[in-house]
Amino acid sequence: MTLKIGVIGTGMIGRDHTRRIQNVLAGAQVVALSDYSSEAAKAVQADLAPDATVHATGQELIAANTVDAVLVCSTGSTHEDYVLAAIEAGKPVFCEKPLATTAEGAKRIVDAEVAAGKRLVQVGFMRRYDSGYVALKDAVVNNTGAPIMVHAAHRNPAVPEQYVTPMAIHDTFVHEIDVFRWLLDDDYVSARVTFPRSCAASHAKLRDPQIVTLTTAKGVVINTEIYVNCKYGYDIQCQVVGEDGVAYLPEPQAIKMRLGAKFQNEILTDWKDRFVASYDVELQDFIKAAAEGTATGPSSWDGYMAAVTCDACVEAQEAEGSAIIISNPERPALYN
Ligand SMILES: NC(=O)C1=CN([C@@H]2O[C@H](COP(=O)(O)OP(=O)(O)OC[C@H]3O[C@@H](n4cnc5c(N)ncnc54)[C@H](O)[C@@H]3O)[C@@H](O)[C@H]2O)C=CC1
Ligand SMILES: O=C1[C@@H](O)[C@H](O)[C@@H](O)[C@H](O)[C@H]1O
Protein backbone atom coordinates (compact mmCIF):
# COMPACT_ATOMS: atom_id res chain seq x y z
CA MET A 1 0.00 0.00 0.00
CA THR A 2 1.22 3.51 -0.79
CA LEU A 3 0.24 6.01 1.90
CA LYS A 4 -1.14 9.17 0.32
CA ILE A 5 0.17 12.21 2.18
CA GLY A 6 -0.96 15.83 2.15
CA VAL A 7 1.60 18.47 3.18
CA ILE A 8 0.44 21.75 4.76
CA GLY A 9 3.13 24.44 4.73
CA THR A 10 5.63 24.20 1.89
CA GLY A 11 8.34 26.49 3.23
CA MET A 12 11.77 25.29 4.12
CA ILE A 13 10.96 22.14 6.10
CA GLY A 14 7.72 21.29 4.23
CA ARG A 15 9.72 21.28 0.99
CA ASP A 16 12.47 19.17 2.56
CA HIS A 17 10.00 16.61 3.96
CA THR A 18 8.25 16.46 0.56
CA ARG A 19 11.63 15.73 -1.05
CA ARG A 20 12.35 12.90 1.36
CA ILE A 21 8.89 11.33 0.90
CA GLN A 22 9.17 11.56 -2.90
CA ASN A 23 12.85 10.64 -3.31
CA VAL A 24 14.22 8.93 -0.24
CA LEU A 25 11.60 7.06 1.80
CA ALA A 26 9.47 4.03 0.96
CA GLY A 27 5.72 3.44 1.14
CA ALA A 28 4.32 6.95 0.66
CA GLN A 29 3.65 9.61 -1.92
CA VAL A 30 2.78 13.31 -1.60
CA VAL A 31 -0.62 13.70 -3.29
CA ALA A 32 -1.68 17.12 -1.97
CA LEU A 33 -0.06 20.41 -1.01
CA SER A 34 -1.28 23.59 0.61
CA ASP A 35 0.36 26.79 1.76
CA TYR A 36 -0.82 30.23 2.78
CA SER A 37 1.19 31.31 -0.25
CA SER A 38 -0.16 29.36 -3.24
CA GLU A 39 3.07 30.22 -5.11
CA ALA A 40 5.07 28.34 -2.48
CA ALA A 41 2.81 25.27 -2.84
CA LYS A 42 2.94 25.43 -6.64
CA ALA A 43 6.74 25.73 -6.59
CA VAL A 44 7.02 22.52 -4.53
CA GLN A 45 4.48 20.84 -6.82
CA ALA A 46 6.54 21.80 -9.88
CA ASP A 47 9.86 20.75 -8.36
CA LEU A 48 8.94 17.62 -6.41
CA ALA A 49 5.34 16.41 -6.74
CA PRO A 50 3.89 17.12 -10.21
CA ASP A 51 0.92 14.78 -9.63
CA ALA A 52 -0.11 16.42 -6.35
CA THR A 53 -3.17 18.67 -6.14
CA VAL A 54 -2.76 22.16 -4.67
CA HIS A 55 -5.44 23.13 -2.14
CA ALA A 56 -6.52 26.65 -1.25
CA THR A 57 -6.60 25.86 2.48
CA GLY A 58 -5.13 23.30 4.83
CA GLN A 59 -8.63 22.41 6.04
CA GLU A 60 -9.65 21.54 2.47
CA LEU A 61 -6.53 19.36 2.11
CA ILE A 62 -7.31 17.49 5.34
CA ALA A 63 -10.88 16.80 4.18
CA ALA A 64 -9.81 15.54 0.73
CA ASN A 65 -10.70 11.87 0.03
CA THR A 66 -7.36 11.40 -1.70
CA VAL A 67 -5.41 12.17 1.52
CA ASP A 68 -4.73 9.33 4.01
CA ALA A 69 -2.37 11.22 6.33
CA VAL A 70 -1.21 14.79 6.92
CA LEU A 71 2.09 16.57 7.52
CA VAL A 72 1.77 19.95 9.26
CA CYS A 73 4.86 22.03 8.37
CA SER A 74 3.37 25.53 8.42
CA THR A 75 4.27 28.36 10.79
CA GLY A 76 4.06 27.24 14.45
CA SER A 77 1.03 29.37 15.38
CA THR A 78 -1.10 27.51 12.78
CA HIS A 79 -0.34 23.96 13.95
CA GLU A 80 -3.05 23.55 16.58
CA ASP A 81 -6.02 24.10 14.25
CA TYR A 82 -4.65 21.77 11.59
CA VAL A 83 -3.81 18.99 14.04
CA LEU A 84 -7.28 19.24 15.61
CA ALA A 85 -8.88 19.06 12.14
CA ALA A 86 -6.82 15.97 11.25
CA ILE A 87 -7.83 14.24 14.50
CA GLU A 88 -11.46 15.15 13.79
CA ALA A 89 -11.10 13.58 10.33
CA GLY A 90 -9.52 10.46 11.91
CA LYS A 91 -6.31 10.91 9.85
CA PRO A 92 -2.80 10.33 11.24
CA VAL A 93 -0.89 13.61 11.41
CA PHE A 94 2.81 14.40 11.70
CA CYS A 95 3.19 17.86 13.22
CA GLU A 96 6.47 19.76 13.15
CA LYS A 97 7.43 21.34 16.45
CA PRO A 98 5.81 23.09 18.22
CA LEU A 99 2.65 21.02 18.60
CA ALA A 100 1.01 24.28 19.68
CA THR A 101 2.39 27.63 20.77
CA THR A 102 0.74 27.45 24.20
CA ALA A 103 0.40 24.69 26.77
CA GLU A 104 -3.40 25.18 26.69
CA GLY A 105 -3.40 24.64 22.92
CA ALA A 106 -1.32 21.47 23.24
CA LYS A 107 -3.69 20.23 25.96
CA ARG A 108 -6.67 20.70 23.61
CA ILE A 109 -4.90 18.38 21.15
CA VAL A 110 -4.23 15.79 23.89
CA ASP A 111 -7.91 15.92 24.90
CA ALA A 112 -9.08 15.50 21.29
CA GLU A 113 -6.76 12.56 20.71
CA VAL A 114 -7.79 10.89 23.97
CA ALA A 115 -11.44 11.35 22.93
CA ALA A 116 -10.61 9.75 19.54
CA GLY A 117 -9.34 6.77 21.55
CA LYS A 118 -6.11 6.11 19.66
CA ARG A 119 -2.75 7.68 18.80
CA LEU A 120 -3.04 9.80 15.67
CA VAL A 121 -0.34 12.43 16.25
CA GLN A 122 3.45 12.31 15.95
CA VAL A 123 5.42 15.44 16.87
CA GLY A 124 8.59 16.29 14.91
CA PHE A 125 11.09 15.83 17.71
CA MET A 126 13.60 14.15 15.41
CA ARG A 127 16.49 13.94 17.87
CA ARG A 128 14.93 10.81 19.40
CA TYR A 129 15.73 9.17 16.05
CA ASP A 130 19.34 10.41 15.85
CA SER A 131 21.78 7.49 16.01
CA GLY A 132 24.02 9.47 18.40
CA TYR A 133 21.24 10.10 20.92
CA VAL A 134 20.04 6.50 20.57
CA ALA A 135 23.59 5.29 21.40
CA LEU A 136 23.81 7.80 24.28
CA LYS A 137 20.56 6.52 25.74
CA ASP A 138 21.83 2.96 25.49
CA ALA A 139 25.00 3.98 27.39
CA VAL A 140 22.95 5.76 30.06
CA VAL A 141 20.65 2.76 30.53
CA ASN A 142 23.39 0.09 30.43
CA ASN A 143 26.74 1.62 31.41
CA THR A 144 26.95 4.92 33.30
CA GLY A 145 24.75 4.02 36.26
CA ALA A 146 21.87 6.24 37.32
CA PRO A 147 22.23 9.76 35.85
CA ILE A 148 23.05 12.64 38.22
CA MET A 149 23.86 15.58 35.92
CA VAL A 150 23.66 16.53 32.24
CA HIS A 151 25.83 19.23 30.66
CA ALA A 152 24.68 20.34 27.25
CA ALA A 153 25.04 23.07 24.63
CA HIS A 154 22.92 24.14 21.66
CA ARG A 155 24.94 26.53 19.49
CA ASN A 156 23.85 28.08 16.21
CA PRO A 157 26.22 30.20 14.12
CA ALA A 158 23.73 33.08 13.75
CA VAL A 159 19.99 33.84 13.82
CA PRO A 160 17.85 36.34 11.89
CA GLU A 161 17.09 39.80 13.29
CA GLN A 162 13.51 38.79 14.24
CA TYR A 163 14.79 36.07 16.62
CA VAL A 164 14.17 37.38 20.16
CA THR A 165 14.92 36.05 23.67
CA PRO A 166 11.85 33.76 24.20
CA MET A 167 12.52 32.10 20.82
CA ALA A 168 15.68 30.61 22.26
CA ILE A 169 13.28 28.48 24.31
CA HIS A 170 10.33 27.86 21.96
CA ASP A 171 12.32 27.48 18.77
CA THR A 172 15.68 26.15 19.85
CA PHE A 173 15.85 24.71 23.39
CA VAL A 174 12.55 22.85 22.82
CA HIS A 175 14.59 20.06 21.20
CA GLU A 176 16.65 19.60 24.39
CA ILE A 177 13.49 19.76 26.50
CA ASP A 178 12.04 16.82 24.61
CA VAL A 179 15.17 14.77 24.11
CA PHE A 180 16.24 14.90 27.78
CA ARG A 181 12.80 13.77 29.00
CA TRP A 182 13.19 10.80 26.64
CA LEU A 183 16.87 10.20 27.40
CA LEU A 184 16.38 10.20 31.18
CA ASP A 185 12.82 8.83 31.23
CA ASP A 186 11.99 11.63 33.64
CA ASP A 187 9.92 14.82 33.96
CA TYR A 188 10.92 18.34 34.94
CA VAL A 189 10.05 19.94 38.25
CA SER A 190 11.78 23.33 37.96
CA ALA A 191 13.51 25.71 35.55
CA ARG A 192 15.99 28.51 36.12
CA VAL A 193 17.64 30.81 33.57
CA THR A 194 20.80 32.86 33.99
CA PHE A 195 22.33 35.24 31.50
CA PRO A 196 26.02 35.97 31.10
CA ARG A 197 26.79 39.29 29.38
CA SER A 198 25.34 39.30 25.87
CA CYS A 199 27.70 38.63 22.99
CA ALA A 200 28.54 41.49 20.63
CA ALA A 201 26.74 39.84 17.69
CA SER A 202 23.37 39.96 19.52
CA HIS A 203 20.84 42.81 19.51
CA ALA A 204 18.61 44.71 21.94
CA LYS A 205 15.76 42.14 21.93
CA LEU A 206 17.94 39.04 22.22
CA ARG A 207 19.88 38.11 25.34
CA ASP A 208 22.41 35.65 23.99
CA PRO A 209 23.84 33.38 25.31
CA GLN A 210 21.74 32.05 28.18
CA ILE A 211 22.03 29.08 30.51
CA VAL A 212 18.95 27.05 31.37
CA THR A 213 18.98 24.76 34.41
CA LEU A 214 16.26 22.14 34.57
CA THR A 215 15.79 19.85 37.57
CA THR A 216 13.96 16.56 37.09
CA ALA A 217 11.61 14.61 39.35
CA LYS A 218 14.40 12.07 39.98
CA GLY A 219 16.76 14.89 41.01
CA VAL A 220 18.92 15.13 37.89
CA VAL A 221 20.20 18.66 37.17
CA ILE A 222 20.55 19.58 33.49
CA ASN A 223 22.59 22.63 32.51
CA THR A 224 22.23 23.76 28.91
CA GLU A 225 24.00 26.65 27.24
CA ILE A 226 21.97 28.14 24.40
CA TYR A 227 24.20 30.33 22.24
CA VAL A 228 22.68 31.26 18.89
CA ASN A 229 25.34 33.67 17.63
CA CYS A 230 28.39 31.51 18.29
CA LYS A 231 29.69 32.15 14.73
CA TYR A 232 31.85 29.05 14.36
CA GLY A 233 29.21 26.40 13.55
CA TYR A 234 26.08 24.45 14.48
CA ASP A 235 27.20 22.49 17.49
CA ILE A 236 25.13 20.20 19.70
CA GLN A 237 26.94 18.91 22.77
CA CYS A 238 25.77 16.67 25.57
CA GLN A 239 27.37 14.67 28.34
CA VAL A 240 25.55 12.65 30.97
CA VAL A 241 27.26 12.14 34.32
CA GLY A 242 26.11 8.99 36.09
CA GLU A 243 26.91 7.04 39.26
CA ASP A 244 29.64 5.02 37.50
CA GLY A 245 30.83 7.11 34.58
CA VAL A 246 30.21 9.77 31.96
CA ALA A 247 28.64 9.25 28.50
CA TYR A 248 29.10 11.71 25.62
CA LEU A 249 26.90 12.41 22.61
CA PRO A 250 29.06 11.38 19.63
CA GLU A 251 30.34 14.12 17.31
CA PRO A 252 28.95 13.96 13.76
CA GLN A 253 31.18 11.88 11.51
CA ALA A 254 33.87 14.07 9.93
CA ILE A 255 37.17 13.44 8.18
CA LYS A 256 40.14 14.41 10.30
CA MET A 257 42.83 16.15 8.31
CA ARG A 258 46.47 17.05 8.77
CA LEU A 259 46.60 20.09 6.56
CA GLY A 260 48.54 23.37 6.45
CA ALA A 261 50.32 22.63 9.72
CA LYS A 262 46.99 21.98 11.50
CA PHE A 263 45.27 18.83 12.75
CA GLN A 264 41.61 19.57 12.08
CA ASN A 265 38.14 18.37 11.21
CA GLU A 266 35.18 20.25 9.84
CA ILE A 267 32.29 21.42 12.07
CA LEU A 268 28.82 21.52 10.47
CA THR A 269 27.11 24.89 10.17
CA ASP A 270 23.52 23.91 9.31
CA TRP A 271 21.09 21.97 11.53
CA LYS A 272 19.57 20.37 8.40
CA ASP A 273 22.87 18.60 7.74
CA ARG A 274 23.40 17.69 11.40
CA PHE A 275 20.08 15.85 11.69
CA VAL A 276 19.43 14.83 8.07
CA ALA A 277 19.41 11.10 8.85
CA SER A 278 17.08 11.47 11.84
CA TYR A 279 14.49 13.36 9.77
CA ASP A 280 14.52 10.40 7.38
CA VAL A 281 14.05 7.84 10.16
CA GLU A 282 11.30 9.80 11.98
CA LEU A 283 9.23 10.20 8.81
CA GLN A 284 9.70 6.56 7.80
CA ASP A 285 8.39 5.66 11.26
CA PHE A 286 5.39 7.95 10.70
CA ILE A 287 4.65 6.37 7.32
CA LYS A 288 4.75 2.86 8.80
CA ALA A 289 2.36 3.66 11.65
CA ALA A 290 0.07 5.88 9.54
CA ALA A 291 -0.35 3.05 7.02
CA GLU A 292 -1.92 1.15 9.92
CA GLY A 293 -4.15 4.11 10.79
CA THR A 294 -2.24 5.18 13.89
CA ALA A 295 0.83 7.13 15.05
CA THR A 296 4.00 6.37 16.99
CA GLY A 297 7.11 8.18 18.31
CA PRO A 298 6.93 11.53 20.12
CA SER A 299 3.28 11.96 21.08
CA SER A 300 0.84 14.78 21.74
CA TRP A 301 1.62 14.19 25.40
CA ASP A 302 5.32 14.83 24.71
CA GLY A 303 4.36 17.94 22.72
CA TYR A 304 2.20 19.08 25.63
CA MET A 305 4.91 18.47 28.24
CA ALA A 306 7.38 20.35 26.02
CA ALA A 307 4.94 23.28 25.83
CA VAL A 308 4.45 23.30 29.61
CA THR A 309 8.22 23.31 30.10
CA CYS A 310 8.76 26.02 27.46
CA ASP A 311 6.25 28.26 29.25
CA ALA A 312 8.09 27.70 32.56
CA CYS A 313 11.46 28.47 30.93
CA VAL A 314 10.17 31.73 29.43
CA GLU A 315 8.83 32.66 32.87
CA ALA A 316 12.26 31.78 34.27
CA GLN A 317 13.90 34.09 31.72
CA GLU A 318 11.72 36.91 33.02
CA ALA A 319 12.49 35.98 36.64
CA GLU A 320 16.21 35.86 35.82
CA GLY A 321 18.01 33.62 38.31
CA SER A 322 14.92 32.44 40.22
CA ALA A 323 13.57 28.91 39.97
CA ILE A 324 10.12 28.42 38.45
CA ILE A 325 8.23 25.34 39.60
CA ILE A 326 6.85 23.05 36.89
CA SER A 327 3.79 21.02 37.78
CA ASN A 328 3.24 17.82 35.88
CA PRO A 329 -0.34 16.97 35.00
CA GLU A 330 -1.49 13.36 35.16
CA ARG A 331 -0.65 11.37 32.04
CA PRO A 332 -3.67 9.77 30.30
CA ALA A 333 -3.46 5.98 29.82
CA LEU A 334 -3.25 6.44 26.03
CA TYR A 335 0.34 7.67 26.47
CA ASN A 336 1.64 5.03 28.90
N1 LIG B 1 12.26 19.73 13.59
C1 LIG B 1 13.08 20.69 13.23
O1 LIG B 1 14.29 20.60 13.41
C2 LIG B 1 12.57 21.91 12.59
C3 LIG B 1 11.25 22.28 12.70
N2 LIG B 1 10.82 23.44 12.15
C4 LIG B 1 9.44 23.84 12.36
O2 LIG B 1 8.72 23.70 11.14
C5 LIG B 1 7.77 24.75 11.00
C6 LIG B 1 8.01 25.48 9.68
O3 LIG B 1 9.32 26.02 9.72
P1 LIG B 1 10.05 26.50 8.37
O4 LIG B 1 9.78 25.56 7.27
O5 LIG B 1 11.45 26.78 8.77
O6 LIG B 1 9.33 27.88 8.11
P2 LIG B 1 9.06 28.63 6.72
O7 LIG B 1 8.73 30.03 7.07
O8 LIG B 1 10.15 28.36 5.75
O9 LIG B 1 7.75 27.91 6.15
C7 LIG B 1 6.49 28.03 6.73
C8 LIG B 1 5.44 27.98 5.63
O10 LIG B 1 4.16 27.98 6.24
C9 LIG B 1 3.31 28.78 5.43
N3 LIG B 1 2.14 29.18 6.18
C10 LIG B 1 2.01 30.22 7.06
N4 LIG B 1 0.77 30.26 7.57
C11 LIG B 1 0.10 29.22 7.00
C12 LIG B 1 -1.21 28.74 7.12
N5 LIG B 1 -2.10 29.30 7.94
N6 LIG B 1 -1.54 27.65 6.39
C13 LIG B 1 -0.67 27.05 5.56
N7 LIG B 1 0.60 27.48 5.41
C14 LIG B 1 0.97 28.55 6.12
C15 LIG B 1 4.19 29.94 4.98
O11 LIG B 1 3.66 30.58 3.82
C16 LIG B 1 5.51 29.21 4.71
O12 LIG B 1 5.59 28.77 3.35
C17 LIG B 1 7.94 25.63 12.25
O13 LIG B 1 6.98 25.28 13.18
C18 LIG B 1 9.33 25.30 12.75
O14 LIG B 1 9.48 25.45 14.14
C19 LIG B 1 11.63 24.21 11.38
C20 LIG B 1 12.92 23.88 11.23
C21 LIG B 1 13.51 22.71 11.82
O1 LIG C 1 14.30 23.43 14.86
C1 LIG C 1 15.31 24.00 14.59
C2 LIG C 1 15.37 25.45 14.33
O2 LIG C 1 14.08 25.98 14.28
C3 LIG C 1 16.15 26.10 15.47
O3 LIG C 1 16.30 27.46 15.25
C4 LIG C 1 17.51 25.43 15.63
O4 LIG C 1 18.18 25.98 16.74
C5 LIG C 1 17.29 23.95 15.87
O5 LIG C 1 18.48 23.31 16.16
C6 LIG C 1 16.62 23.35 14.67
O6 LIG C 1 16.50 21.96 14.81
TrEMBL record:
One GO BP: inositol catabolic process
GO molecular-function terms, A-Z: inositol 2-dehydrogenase (NAD+) activity; nucleotide binding
Substrates-to-products reaction catalysed: myo-inositol + NAD(+) = scyllo-inosose + NADH + H(+)
Pfam family, one: GFO_IDH_MocA
Keyword field contains Transmembrane helix: no
Keywords from the UniProt entry: NAD, Oxidoreductase
InterPro entries for this protein: Gfo-Idh-MocA_inositol_DH (IPR050424), Gfo/Idh/MocA-like_OxRdtase_C (IPR004104), Gfo/Idh/MocA-like_OxRdtase_N (IPR000683), MI/DCI_dehydrogenase (IPR023794), NAD(P)-bd_dom_sf (IPR036291)
Tree of life domain: Bacteria
EC number(s) reported in the record: 1.1.1.18
Transmembrane segments: none
Homology family: Belongs to the Gfo/Idh/MocA family.
Subunit structure: Homotetramer.
Protein role: Involved in the oxidation of myo-inositol (MI) to 2-keto-myo-inositol (2KMI or 2-inosose).
Cross-referenced HAMAP family: IolG (MF_01671)
Protein name from the UniProt record: Inositol 2-dehydrogenase
Organism: Celeribacter marinus
Lineage: Bacteria, Pseudomonadati, Pseudomonadota, Alphaproteobacteria, Rhodobacterales
